[in-house]
Amino acid sequence: MAGLFLLAGTNAQSPLPSVAVQPAMPGFLFDLKGEVLVNKYSKVTVGSPFFSDDWLKGKFISTDGRIYDNLSLKLDLVENDIYFLNDLSQEMILYTPVSQIILTNFVTSQSFTFIRTDKLCQSNPKIWYQVLDSGKATLLKSQPKQVIEQKPYGSSVMEENIISNVYYYLFYNQGCYSIKTAGELWQKLNDLLPGFEEKTKVKGTGKKTEEELIRLTGQFNKKAR
Questions:
Q1: How far is Cα 217 from Cα 225, in angstroms, rounded to an integer?
Q2: What is the pLDDT along the chain (225 residues), one digit of tens a residue?
Q3: 31 membership: H or E segment, kind and range
Q4: Domain definitions of the chain by residue range
Q5: Residue 150 contacts by C-beta under 8 Å, 6 or more apart in sequence?
Q6: Sign (positive or negative) of CA dihedral 144, 149, 150, 156
Q7: Distance separating alpha carbons of residues 153 and 110, to the nearest angstrom
Q8: How far apart are CA 223 and CA 217, in angstroms?
Q9: Nearest residue to 49 (alpha-carbon basis) of 81, 73, 97
Q10: Is the alpha carbon torsion for 15, 18, 22, 26 positive or negative?
Q11: What is d(CA 204, CA 191) in angstroms, rounded to the nearest whole number?
């Protein structure tokens, strides 16, 4: 099965399945399918449905292999939708099917890669997975959000709060493993490549610290080339 084509800032050798892409296939803003956005989160008082509340510059790969670049984008993690600004600066919800999206925050100089595929770790094919590290093994993060309705004490008005959960997964050789702690990830990586790192070097083995999960996966990918 073909490997995932990661657009930028990630390792192109990842074994994740995806559509084959050629950079010579550009897409254009007027090709995008969508409709003008209606604010369906107007009752939300706590939390945010988005990966970032700010419009971020980004690009994405459609499922037919076209690359759409230099767009203003938002990622809705409640409905798993993509929003974009059209040439009239109208807020639109995107209907063009997408397999991968990269968002860039130029203020912090950070880029974030998300993929969607029905071959991965959850039964919902709309779930977006953030790629934290990629190589022989790929560290993935999902952050599904949901809307909770509640009526504050003494109020007759229903309010909506948005809560989120964070899950980490290791994808290796077409297998996906849920990861809860750094120590658990170390054990799984050591099973895949015995002796890749002494456990005494693992920091916070009982905690699910994202920085440590990324470090461990990166070390594994360096030694498993």
A1: 12
A2: 233 445 544 443 445 544 444 443 445 555 676 777 778 888 888 999 999 999 999 999 988 888 899 899 999 999 999 999 888 888 889 988 899 999 999 999 999 999 987 666 777 788 999 999 999 999 999 999 999 887 777 777 778 899 999 999 999 988 899 999 998 999 999 999 888 777 657 665 555 689 999 999 999 999 887
A3: none
A4: 1-130
A5: 158, 159, 160, 161
A6: positive
A7: 41
A8: 10
A9: 81
A10: negative
A11: 19
Length of the chain: 225
**DSSP notation for 164-194:** E--EEEEEETTEEEEE-SHHHHHHHHHHHST
Amino acid at 195: G
In single-letter form, the type of residue at position 135 comes to G
How large is the C-alpha radius of gyration of the chain?
19
